[in-house]
Amino acid sequence: MAKRMILTVVVMAALVTGLGFVKFRQVKASIAEHSSFQPPPEAVTTIVAHKDRWPATLEAIGSVTAVQGVTVSADLPGIVQSINFESGKEVHAGDVLVQLDTREEKAQLADAEAARDLTKLNFARMQRLANEGVISRMDFDKAEADQRQAEAKVATIKATIERKTIRAPFTGMLGIRQVNLGQYLSGGNSIVPLQSLDPIYVTVSVPQQASRQVHVGQQIEVTPNEGASQSFTGRVTAIDSVVDESTRNFQVQATLPNPGGKLRPGMFVQARLALGSDADIVSVPSSAISFAPYGDSVFVLADLKDPAGHTYRGVRQEFVKLGPSRGDQVAVLSGVNAGDEVVTSGAFKLRNGAAVQVNNKVQPSNSTAPKVEDR
């Protein structure tokens, strides 16, 4: 009985050992097979990086402000007697915009002018009597003072009437009317905005690092919208003397011709400052850049070798330092050389050393001045 049990145990042990050895060989073969497995190549588009000569520029965000801009308001209280303008129209300096009721002031003026004329006659009589020595010098001085006082009162009433005639302080474009006929206005009440539109100011914020590169007289190009076909060119006319502590930027003011008033105060614009001579750079499409918090990178095509020593067409990830951009293109300051073949689409699914298959039948946009297309 004992011999039979021992034999059974030996047979079972041999059987388990044999099955384990077979499974071990299978697992080893499977590991060897997977270790040499290569995923299928990813389809990508590519472009050969080349050198370009770009003008040295600084791009900044700016806003449009009027050279002269005010809200015309009432100087003295009164009732609106007439409105002599239309909203949104151009006016010239000195044009009457609003006339307030001045009937009371005109009556006061007539009274003051009559009193002035009387004091003139009295002064003329006193002057003759003084020359004849009939009256004292004190009486003559009082008559002269009365005449001057009467003339000053007339001038004061005339000034009040003129202040109730509200005129355009300069030539410009009116905004929306804010008063109505017969309305009572208190001193300081708004009547209508007035802006001088040609020429016009554009104020841009520039980083403090560029302070030595920006100077008065520099050319500036402004576009009101991304991809807009029309641009405006002007010159830097003023540079702020202080740097904003919160942003470390300083303000640069440029003056631009604005025929037709196409640029309006308050508009957001994109500005490009010409900093000097052109610079040689290597440019790639912006779609080729993989942006990441730890660093921007591109994938460059190269001949690589797998673990078995076989050569295949793959990609090498290169970290890059970027410069300015123009349209669809980005300047690469380091990390890519002219002549490198760079992946322009499909980079999001790649990793360092991945195999690729190039198909350039359809290429992403790569223009320095792209146009907005209807979709």
Describe the structure.
There is one protein chain. It contains 3 helices and 21 strands. Helix 2 packs antiparallel against helix 3. The mean pLDDT is 80. It has a 6-stranded antiparallel β-barrel with strand order 2-11-14-13-12-15. The protein has a 4-stranded antiparallel beta sheet with strand order 3-10-8-5, with no helix packed on it. A hairpin with a 2-residue loop joins strand 18 (321-326) and strand 19. It folds into 4 domains: 42-54 and 279-358, conserved putative lor/sdh protein from methanococcus maripaludis s2 fold (Beta Barrel); 59-67 and 197-278, Efflux pump adaptor protein, beta barrel domain (Elongation Factor Tu (Ef-tu), domain 3), CATH 2.40.30; 76-100 and 166-195, RNA polymerase II/Efflux pump adaptor protein, barrel-sandwich hybrid domain (OB fold (Dihydrolipoamide Acetyltransferase, E2P), Beta Barrel), CATH 2.40.50.100; 102-163, Helix hairpin bin (Helix Hairpins), CATH 1.10.287.470. The chain has 375 residues and is an alpha+beta fold. The protein is elongated. The protein has helices spanning 2-35, 103-132, 137-163; strands at 42-48, 50-66, 69-73, 78-83, 90-91, 96-100, 165-167, 172-174, 184-185, 190-195, 200-207, 219-223, 232-239, 249-256, 268-285, 297-305, 311-319, 321-326, 329-334, 341-345, 356-358.
